[in-house]
Write a structure and sequence with these properties.
The complex is a heterotrimer of chains A (about 675), B (about 250) and C (about 325). In chain A, about 50% of the residues lie in helices and about 10% in strands. The radius of gyration of chain A is 30 Å and the shape is elongated. Chain A folds into 4 domains: about 35-245; about 245-375, Fumarate Reductase Iron-sulfur Protein, Chain B, domain 2; about 400-530, Rossmann fold (3-Layer(aba) Sandwich); about 535-650, Rossmann fold (3-Layer(aba) Sandwich). Chain A has 28 helices and 10 strands. A 4-stranded parallel sheet of chain A has the order 4-3-5-6, with helices on both faces. In chain A, strands 8-7-9-10 form a 4-stranded parallel sheet. A two-stranded antiparallel ribbon of chain A has the order 1-2. By secondary structure, chain B is α/β, with parallel strands linked by helices. In chain B, helix 2 crosses helix 5. The radius of gyration of chain B is 21 Å and the shape is globular. Chain C has about 325 residues and is of the alpha/beta class. In chain C, the strands form 4 sheets. Chain C has a 7-stranded parallel sheet with strand order 7-11-6-1-4-5-12, with helices on both faces. Chain C has a 5-stranded parallel sheet with strand order 15-14-16-17-18. Chain C has a 3-stranded antiparallel sheet with strand order 8-9-10, with no helix packed on it. The mean pLDDT of chain C is about 90. The radius of gyration of chain C is 24 Å and the shape is elongated. The two termini of chain C are about 45 Å apart. The chains are: A alpha/beta (about 675), B alpha/beta (about 250), C alpha/beta (about 325). Chains in contact: A-B, A-C, B-C. Strand 13 of chain B pairs parallel with strand 18 of chain C.
Amino acid sequence: MVDVTLAAVTCAHPSGTMLFPAMWVSATLAEPAHFSWLETGLLAAGIVISLALFFWRFGPILRNILHSKQDADFSLHPVGRRVWDFFWEVLCQGKVIRQRPLPGLAHAFVFWGFLAFALVSSNHIANGLQIGFLSPESSLGKFYFLFAAAWALLVAVGITGLFIRRFFVRPIWFGKKVSIESGWIAFLIFLLMVSYLGAFFVSPGGAAVKALWWTHTLTLLVFLPLIPHTKHLHLVISPVTVFLKRDGFSNIPPLSGDEDFGLVAGKDVTQLISLQVYSCVECGRCTEHCPAANSGKVLNPKEIALGVRSYLNELGSVSDVALLAEARPETAFANLLSMEAAFECTTCGACEYQCPVGIQHVPVIVGLRRGATNTGVWEDTYGTKLFLALEKNGNALGLSAMERDKFIQKEAFPIFDGTQEYCLWLGCMGGYDPKGREIIADFARVMKYLGTTFGVLKKEKCTGDPARRLGNDLVFQTLAEAGLKAFETAKVQKIVAICPHCVRTIANDWREYGIAPEIEHHSEFMARHKDRLPKQASGESIVYHDPCYLGRYRDVYEAPREMVRQAGTLVEAPRSHERSFCCGAGGGLAFLGEEQGERVSHIRAAELAGTGAQVVGTACPFCNTMFRDALAEVSTAPPQLLDIAQLTARALPKMQETGIMDQGTGEQ
Amino acid sequence: MKILVAIKQVPERDAQVHVASDGKWIDESDLNYTINEPDAYALEEALQLKEKNGGEVVVVCAGPERVTSTLREALAKGADRAIHIEADDMGSRDTLGVAQILADAMKSESPDLILTGLQSDDLGLGQTGVVMAELLGIPHATIIMHVEATGSGLKVKRELEDGWFQHVEMPLPALLTIQSGGNKLRYATLMGIKKAKTKETKTVQAAAATAPAIALDRVYLPEKQKKTEMLTGTPDQVAAKIVEKLKFEVRVI
Amino acid sequence: MSGVLVVMEQRGGNWNRMSFEALAAGQQLAAKLGVECSAVVMGEAVGSLASELGSKKLAKIITVEHALLKTYTSDAYVAALEQVAKQASPAYVIFPHTYQVRDFAPALATRFHSVLISDVIAMHDGPVFVRQLLQGKLNADYRQTGAGPCFVSIQAGTFRADAVEAGTSAIEAFAPSLDAAQIRNKPGELFRESAQTVDLSAAPAIVSVGRGIGEQENIALVEELAKALGAELAASRPICDNGWLPMERQVGSSGQTVAPKLYLAVGISGAIQHLVGMKGSKTVIAINKDENAPIFEVADYGVVGDLFEVVPALTKAVLAAKG
């Protein structure tokens, strides 16, 4: 029986009093008092069958994962980071809620509800096996079952909301086909909750109690084997996936040994990748933020993960069949994993950033590219031109190194000789592109104003970033080793660069071949000295675009913003910080040919211009170059386009003819 | 088809050149070397012919120790074997001398086809292939854009002035000098480099140099450096100046 | 061995005009050395061509006529010239540096244990022959040291065809002994490639238009200049992106790479993506109103001015010069 006492609870509140009713249910969970041996036997049999069916599907999956290639570079350390990520992302559902608040919360309820139900379910089964351990009569039991009931309500509400979203709202990120199995799972979960809650409203000892009990039990037994057959496998493995994620963001693992060329065939797929693709819940958050998927390209990061999963399901993890299998169109995975898709990625990392179950898409895509490029299978006019230019000229643009020399002479940059504090790294854009050169020149002015000594290397080759992202390890290795040697010979201790790609590649990717001197981005440098740099209260509105390789890759969001605030009024783009939308140049794509579909740079340029800001502030010469033409084409009165170095430099006092500058405000 | 490709290692195109103190050649101390670009096209042609018709591609290069890196790159791109003709005195051999040592090394291989680039990026004489053909007594054709194997030999497409072309049928064995740009070059892959480690490079000693027929007396910077000449004046004046340049310097009028 | 022998080139009864530049070179060399200069013409029936040379200052004109010399083959030409050279015994053999000469002259020189000094851009006392090395970065002085005749081919434009000295000369026939079995190659007919609408890479001159043109209608201005020059019209990326010119006319990193004799950049700023497509051009002339435009870094001749004034003036001047 249920005694329902409505108690109004008032709550004192600064703005007045709020009244909300709380329902006190002084009720107990009605459980079957007695199970016959036949019932126990049936239950036991049911459990055995359910588990068998579970392992029948889960076994091969586990086998695929365990038989995959070992990850050569994997280490559990630092464990602290992993524990924190597990706590925040899995237990607190931090990413799930933050990036898609309402559905995320609904899912969080379901997840927390599942956790809360752990004891309930165990006790429930134990009862049936006549070894129940928690009595609804005990005070602990009373409390706990009511606690679980509150959760059951939240779960029921949550799952209903998610059901409505999937079947009626139908976000496009879920894909075109509606997933019927999701409907069934939602129904089963709902049934679990209802069959639990129902037990509070029936009189104990009646037939209804048994009926509810068996309903709940059968639902559980049916649910269990369904887990490995559907994307609900994530219930079991995604906590492990999140815990075991490869360290760092978008870290590309080194190749291991002479036979490793990247992800050529199934046998090259590593354990981490297998684990990750089996965790995919097909939520489509990766697709939602992918610049390629948002501009009419073939690439869809979700399909990359599902493609690899499909391959593993069809061919296992030791197969020789090529992953990018153009030649076998009848397979499911061939539709999802195409060479075209793999080479449309800008490596912006938005997919990886968003993934709530720990899938690291970028190393997979770069791995697929490696498999194609390192074996010569990728035949692309522009790609070949790029690799040959890097081989012959040491820069991505295929220009004579003398062009860089001319620029250095014109600007009278000192050559680094070991006495200066910083080595100013020009990069390909800074050394050869007219706009990149302007940025370098302005940043040099800033450094001179601050009295910071710097020099440029006599000879510079490309850091190898485009080769690295396109999967050409031969060119990348050559350039990385040459670069490391150049820094060592010149005895460089600190490097500052204007290009986030250079910074990332030197700081992270070169590690495969040696440790480079410490390097920072010019925004980090300038922000540190911002108090000595003159402010310009121009009142101009400046919308800042977070470069992928500075924001998501390096976690630097505030430093460039501080410089923007010094130059005018900061305006945020609709998609900013870790959600910043790529300019389209990354992943080597700035050097490849015509894009299909809409141009990524135009989409972002329209978004930036649409803020109405007078200036677009950038911190990457590639973003700058991409927006230069794009802004003019998406707007009749396009905003000005300036790098933060240019914004800062324009506030500097003009240099006197003798070259002696107004020194700043003195020593720091 | 057994194809021999004669390749040359030359200073990088971009290199800043300084005349050596004795004025006879350039200062080689700071130079990086690479494959002569037209030879890269010859190699590409050979590799494509092998892919189409089967057979073997052997690269041959004469020079000091450092040329082995260029041979290795060629192996990485797909050549099957390499022959290094060791000679430290290439500077004192003329075209005839170089062609002689190349021909000597190739004779024992009995190739079906010999390919060379049309000229070298450093000296640019453009003759070594033709001289080799003459020494070996085989027919040749130059400035070839396209090669096709026929039942009885070859059909090649030869480039002529002014956008004209000509097909030539030739018997085998023969020698061709290959024009740049006919094919798309392939990039060296990691897989290629790893495979190259297992491929054979044979070293032979070059015969002693004989007295050359021509001598390179000295090298020097040309008097006119490339400097932008700004033309000023009224539009008509400027137009007149440009026309003068077009007539006498550029020679398009 | 003495004297200078100039090898003239003809095809199908028409001179290759470069032969006259070689003739001028041969005459000047002979004059400097105080020796005779002769010319040789080969083909099936070259009598009328040879008589054109009758009004030039030459010791003699050797005609070499044979059925097997009607169509050029290296085997026939080398065999015939070898015989002529053995008989005439010149100290110097001068060729124009044509595609054909590149095909056979080295083989001819080999027969005399000599090496062709090819693509000469100047002759100095000695005689010393000047060539370009390393894509024009350096000049080099070459000298004959061997005992055989000195074979030299002259780069186009080094000497002026109209500098051939007038005079008188007589024709001397030479009958070569050639055998069809000697000729190993079978050359086919000459042909041109099938008409592509645009092949920028084959164009000797290109006029390229950039964003400075402003409006689509204004392109007609530049088109007229291109037509006047007999040049192909090309553009930088933004023009093609706007659809003002077809994509196949785009020069740049995502378009075509060209290396014409003349590249006339009109209203092009010189962004890196464009420069990489035309940096190989022999002569670059740029017209831009911004004196800091990067295009001027790679231009041989630059005009800082308003293209709407300069281009029409230039078109007029070009048409006038062409007559």
